[in-house]
Amino acid sequence: MAAKEEIQTRDDPVAATAEEDDEHDSKERVLQRYFLQEWKLLKSLLDDIVANGRVSDPSAVNKIRTILDKYQEQGQLLEPYLETIISPLMFIVRSKTVALGVVTDEILEIIKPLCIIIYSLVTVCGYKSVIKFFPHQVSELELAVSLLEKCHHATVVTSLRQESTGEMETKCVILLWLSILVLVPFDISSVDTSIASSGLVGGLEPSPLVLKILGFSKDYLSSAGPMRAIAGLLLSRLLTRPDMPKAFSSFIEWTHEILSSATNDVMDHFRLLGVVEALAAIFKVGSRKVLLDLVPVVWNDTSILVKSNTAVRSPLLRKFLVKLTQRTGLVCLPPRSPSWQYVGKSSSLGENVTDKHDVCNNERNADSFYSKESACSVQEGDMDVPEIIEEIIELLLSGLRDTDTVVRWSAAKGIGRITARLTSTLSDEVLSSVLELFSPGEGDGSWHGGCLALAELARRGLLLPISLPKVVPVIIKALHYDIRRGPHSVGSHVRDAAAYVCWAFGRSYFHSDMKNILEQLAPHLLTVACYDREVNCRRAAAAAFQENVGRQGSFPHGIEIVNTADYFSLSSRVNSYLNVAVNIVQYKEYLHPFVEELLCSKICHWDKGLRELAAEALSALVKYDTGYFASFVLERLIPCTLSTDLCMRHGATLAVGELVLALHQCDHLLSTDKQKSVAGIVPAIEKARLYRGKGGEIMRSAVSRFIECISLSHISLPQRIKQSLLGTLNENLRHPNAQIQNSAVEALKHFVPAYLVMVDDGNADSITSKYLDLLSDPNVAARRGSALALGVLPFKFLAAKWTVVISNLCRSCAIEDNPDDRNAEARVNAVRGLVSVCETLSSTRKHSQFLSVDDDMSLCLMIKREVMQTLFKALDDYSVDNRGDVGSWVREAAMDSLERCTYILCERESEGFPRKTTGIEYKEHPDNDIAERDQGHTLFDVSLATSLVGGFVKQAVEKIDKIRDIAATILGRILHNERIFVPCIPYREKLEEIVPNHPDLKWGVPTFSYPRLVQLLQFSCYSRFLISGLVISIGGLQDSLRKASITALLMYLQDTLADKHEGCLREHMLGDDLLWVLQQYRRCDRVIIPTLKTIEILFSKKILLNMEAKTLDFCVGVLDSLAIELKGSRDFSKLYAGISILGYVASVSDPINIQAFSQLLTFLGHRYPKIRKASADQVYLALLQNENLVAAGDKREKALEIISETCWEGDIEEAKHQRLQLYEMAGMEASKLLKTNREANKDNKKSVADENASYSSLVGSSGF
């Protein structure tokens, strides 16, 4: 048992040290160690591979790759499992290579899937973590070289499949294996068996084995794949061995030739990349003594190449050249630990916390640092720095200006590494050169590279505290770096890098050195954290602030701010501006910096949305210092409203309006001069003609919002300015831009009550009349704006002409007679304006002397008889234009308006009449009974309630998800409204059960809504409404909607809980309702075509064909409708559905089948060949299913023969001749057929003979 446990422990790397590690490690590390959730599945797949000695199931490789790819960003979670995964796989690779040899191709088929798995681990965890578990016996070197030779010379199989074929992964894994094997501590010539077998004696010349490795590696340096980097790694480890001087010299000569002869060829470019990358790797691991002699040659080639056009075009080449340059500089400078280097905090926060009790000791160390620096300065002055270093630093500084981030980042690290080996004097010169990158003439790339370099210097202790006063102002500028370029700006990467510098400051310096610096940085970091446009910059600044609070602890109110401005709260820009910033500004020391940031950078920002948000954010800060905003901020903003810069004047106009409103809400009264200045802003803008040009629309919206704010604030205005502002709003109402119209309506809503209601100058009637006249204006924009304007007028402006206003708005809700005048947005606004007028009139009647009791009743009756009926008609607005179903906008507005008008009527009725507290339950009551129960309900009766609920039910089962969701949600609110009871709703209890009072129901999901709502088909008062909407979904083009709706209908009809009689009754009601739809929507293809498709589907399910006596009535009604609908129709989908229905009816045994068969035969001579073919198919099926159509015997067989052998898609005359024979066989009079043909020819004499001659017919045949 103990042995078994030991084996299990050895197999599982986690179990081996679980008890010890779990006891000592932190909770987070233990969770990460066990975070490979798919370990059981992965282990089973690996065990199967190990047991078979190869990958037997190719899908297992894809499964393993899918699992591993999930951990791309958290590769360290896989590290505890690497040995268990890699060791057995590499053992198979080694053992199979030994057993099979490299002669056969079978070895590649075995190792390719294994190498795919191993290389997946390399991409996730990195090669350094993976190669630790590769076998590295000396005897395996030749084996690996032979295997690489086999892969290198194998024919590459090109594949267009998504899955990898394994060639690239195999080469990469073998190259990595060789990179660990060439480190054997023996002379490689002593390992090469080819020397012994050939009798050669090893010397300075490289052995054949080494030559093979060099040859393969040079070839792979020209590769465009990952083999290039791994080959460079292999060469760096091989050539820097002590026994490789000859090979190393030869390779350097070869690289010199490559670097000197760079061309524009693609393959030469890849080889150039590989050579430079290999040299950089060699200079990283090679001995300084050996490399020092190569510096002049390599540096000469590098300096020439970096200035060439090849480097200009290739960012990757420039990155490798910068790496090679910095490593060349490190070779020239001896390794040293400069005594002048700042020794700051430990990188571990835990160590810093444990040392906090010895703060005095830290401060003494920091104080003694300067004395050490002065003591060692004499010795450092004697340091001999090669002249080449100056050139290298110059190249790295130019790399900081590069256009690509990867090059700048590599150059910044090079600056830090080389500076660490310089004297303090020279390091100051480097710092001065870096600071020159922040000059105004430099581009954003220089600022970004400079920030990265400063961060590297700070992290390495090379940026001394004495230099911080000249660095911090530059970093503050970088935190706010934002340069406008056309319609956008650049600088987010600079601000991000500047926040990184501040983060590095917090980790590198003692509190005593950072105290004054933090006081400067804190406000700027917080303004960026709250007000930056980009979320990455906000989060970077917040992280820097948090790092400094945790390590320095001297930020004012740091802990409270860190809790407020966290990673998630800053993800939303609106939340950052209006909530996080407001919470921070409660600490007085941050108020003025925040206001300055908004005034200087955000009010004039190029992004229009950000300017609007900045104006709101500025007003949110008013409560902390009203005097400061009323005096200083307003005086600063008012002149900016006339700025020549569009962004500035737009933002300033919005900001002034928001500030005035915020000051009013804080009960701060502006002085007379200030009010006069504010009142003159809009006239001054108009006088300067700032509505013209591309910024005119933006300024119009801003001015409307400004007028709204001063109206809410009751700023004192002269009469002249009042008229001017009213004229401005009227102009904006006529503007075609919907956003400008909406902002003008909102402003008018507050402007009129504030400045025009209390003035008795007789302008009320003229203003109302003007808007009434605009309702019939030819200008569509004027109609849209006037409808909205009438909706926001106060009671005084409507009292005298309320009947005219309501009547005109009702007419505007209807679809225009002239097609050129039709506009869906105008009808939407008319519907919204109509209900707003009704609410205004009804809400002020209690405390108004303008309406008498009779007028009050007249208003309510007008709402019931005209307004409600108008809104019901708006529910039938299915207008379509090139934007799609624009009528849905009108229907959506109508549903909202119906709900509000219902509440008006029910509330008024509850006040004037005793209301009933129970719903009405009835089943097919006679009309006089309904009339009796309607007594006492003058305003809202059963008929109105039925139409209301039916209208919502119809919309709730149609094809648009949004409309269905809105309709069902509003119906639920009406049924369950606790404040206003809506009476007279038939079957209320059942409705409340179907539409429960739950706000989160997914009515837009068809599989949820249809099974519920289809239950209303059992109630005759709602069934016709519902079926008229349901057929649209069942017969529509959307497959998922069609399946959900027809499934719900079939489940309702085939409900096992209902008895047989109830099932028949449901089927009879459905048939009657479908006939009603066919009659109600005659010649309306929008409804008729889906209805015919619905009937076809139901017939295919044997529904509506077995209703005994009712079947005959239903089929007669359907045939009558088909005779009308199909006559002269060119719609293919309509014809197909009708012919299919005729086929089903002709197959039944009722007497009606002869009529259906007769109609079906007429389509055998149709002008469209496809229709003739479809008709022939249906005739054939009908004859097979119903023997009574043609006399049994030879005639029936002859008819079937004619149908099957005739080419119905061929000549139409031949088709008509064959049709005549079928007519005679069926015993029908030919005179009827000739009469039918003459009528058809008369109706379609202008039609084309070929079905493809009309493009619309071709499109229609597709179902569209």
TrEMBL record:
Domain of life: Eukaryota
Bias (Basic and acidic residues) ranges: 1-13, 1240-1249
GO BP of this protein: post-chaperonin tubulin folding pathway; tubulin complex assembly
SUPFAM superfamilies for the chain: ARM repeat
Positions of the Tubulin-folding cofactor D ARM repeats domain: 316-559
UniProt-annotated stretches for the region Disordered: 1-25, 1240-1264
Keywords: Chaperone
Annotated Polar residues bias: 1253-1264
Pfam family, one: ARM_TBCD_2nd
Domain Tubulin-folding cofactor D C-terminal: from-to ranges: 947-1134
HEAT repeat boundaries on the chain: 392-429
An annotated Gene Ontology molecular function: beta-tubulin binding
Protein name, UniProt field: Tubulin-specific chaperone D
Organism: Nelumbo nucifera
